[in-house]
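Example 3.2
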Amino acid sequence: GAGYAGGILSAAVDGIKIAENALIKGGVMPDGTVVIIGDAHVSQADMELTLAHELIGHYGIDTLLGKRGMEALLRAAKRHEGGLMGLASDLGLEDAVRGVNNIYDQRIAAAKARGASEKTIAELEHAREMTQLREIVAEAAEKPQRGGAVVDVLG
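Structure, written as tokens:
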């Protein structure tokens, strides 16, 4: 579990250390509950960006498209020149994808160390790609000038 003190992550989440003193501003729980940590924000505008990120970029896109739609969006994104990282780069969102990669590198290494099956590793790789896509969409949702760019770039 994660310890929380004023929005600062003080332990691992799902056994993965996110980052030393990572500031967590919000998230979407597995049951769809959107959580916003008020004192982790410096202003109302900062909180509004987090709301856009979580509600539109994470909860909204999954709810709107569903599993099949998300898979179709992922296939389209992977066809983009440079794949998901190329898409992120074109939108100026490389850091979001790098952060996802760091987390999944740890998860995959831990799974391999436990002797996980090839199927399990493939599922983790797919989860990495889906999480990368969700972060691209969520980051674009924070920045309306980039939001339509996801669709423009994917064609």
